[in-house]
Amino acid sequence: MKPQPPPLAATDHSAGWRRLAFALLLAALAGGAIGYWYVVPVKVPWQQVQPRLMSLEINGPGLLDAINRVVVTSRIQGFLKSIEADRNDVVKRGQVLALLESVDLLNQLAAAQAEATAAARGISEAESERARAKAGYDRAKIEFERRSSLARSNVISPAELTTAESNYLQAEADMARADAGIERAKAQLLSKQANVKVLEAKLAEATIVSPLDGVVISRERNPGDLLLPGANLMQVVELSTIIISARFDESARSTVKPGQPARIRFAADPNRVWTGKVLRLSRQVDQETREFTADITLDALPESWAMGQRANVAVEAQSPALTIGVPETFVTRRDGRPGVWLARNGRATWVPVTLGYVSGTNIEVTRGLKAGDAVLSPAGRYPFEPVQLGAQLP
Asked: Origin, by domain of life (predicted)?
């Protein structure tokens, strides 16, 4: 005989208890998880915030430049006869860089020298004329004095005395005119000599020389070109004055000082570090970028240096006042905004901060933290996590 199935009511009752037990088990597990995540504290590494003086790393872009960088030009107009130096040539002060055609100047100088010689002879002629006038003056004076004596004795008539006086005055005027002729001849000689000097100077300017010891970094003209006054012929830089012209935010103006060490990385070789130091700071801030410039000297130049070469400069400076810093690894970001985890009332709380400059493995925090705050390691942190301060980091 077939067994009879249990009553339907009993079967439903057992299934209901099993579902209730499973629900209670899930609730217990959820409650345990919630209790574990939000009740049971976890020991975490931390660091107490204390204001202190920090060695800051002030970073900024820069360009290779030179303090003594000269654009070589001509002061006179002329055709280039030859160029004696080319790009990358090392030149000395006074070394010939280029020559201009100077035949016309040579001819003008020869003519001016001949005119100066003629003017010098003109002085001799004027002096001879004065000597003649002086002799006539002396004769006229003696004759006038003799006739004046005779006139007082009524030996000669007044008309004869008047004639003698007129001759005397005429001789005196001739001598004055001769003196003026000498001065005029001397002035003409000075004018001609000055013209000779001007042409000699122009002829000297037809030879263009280097104004300093350095390296030719560019050449803009070729032989046969017409060189106008002020036109760029070539550029020469003095090697000992090559610098990095770096730009920094104006907030670092009181932090960056002359003499501070600097590290330079060039865009052409970013894996190599060059050393240098701050030479001087500008006294002007760009009105648009709010940046100032600083000249950085290099202890050594790259072999493949070039003017205008890009670089990144990191100046090792001391903070001007006590400041707060945290390890860079403690900084996390939410939606691109930096922040740190703090222990507040036994819970982990993320707070946004404003960052400053890097200081080794630390980074400056300019806003968001205060002295005594406990900054937590960010590994595994979540909002309202119960935490217990564990090992304190230095």
From this structure: Bacteria
The reply to whether 373 and 341 lie within a common domain is yes
> Which H helix or E strand runs over 237?
strand 234-237
Distances (CA, A) of 335 to 340, 352, 356, 357: 14, 11, 19, 21
What does the alpha-carbon distance between residue 229 and residue 224 come to, in Å, rounded to a whole number? 16
Strand pairing category for 42-48 and 387-392 = parallel
CA distance 347 to 32: 18
Q: Which residue bears the tokens 């560019």?
A: 218
**CATH number of the domain enclosing 134:** 1.10.287.620
Structural domain range at position 292: 59-66+240-318
Torsion angle (degrees, nearest 10) of CA 181, 183, 188, 194: 170
Greatest CA separation for the chain? 206
The candidate with the shortest Cα–Cα distance to 175, out of 201, 203, 141, 146, is 141
Q: Are residues 175 and 188 in the same domain?
A: yes
Does residue 12 form part of some domain?
Answer: no
Query: Quick one: CA dihedral 153, 159, 165, 167, positive or negative?
Result: negative
Query: In the chain, how many domains are there?
Result: 4
Cβ–Cβ under 8 Å, residues 293 and 245 = yes
d(CA 324, CA 50): 6
- Least Cα distance to 338 among 368, 373, 383, 375 occurs for 368
CA 378 to each of CA 45, 108, 112, 358: distance values in angstroms, whole numbers, following the listed order: 9, 86, 89, 19
| Binned average pLDDT, 10 residues per bin, the chain of 394 residues | 52 61 60 56 85 87 94 91 93 94 87 89 86 85 81 78 82 86 88 90 90 93 91 93 94 90 92 94 93 95 91 89 87 91 87 87 88 87 82 76
Question: 231 and 246: one domain?
Answer: no
Q: Dihedral angle at the C-alpha atoms of 378, 379, 381, 386, nearest 10 degrees?
A: -100
Asked whether residue 34 is assigned to any structural domain, the reply reads no
pLDDT value of position 230: 87
CATH number at residue 217: 2.40.50.100
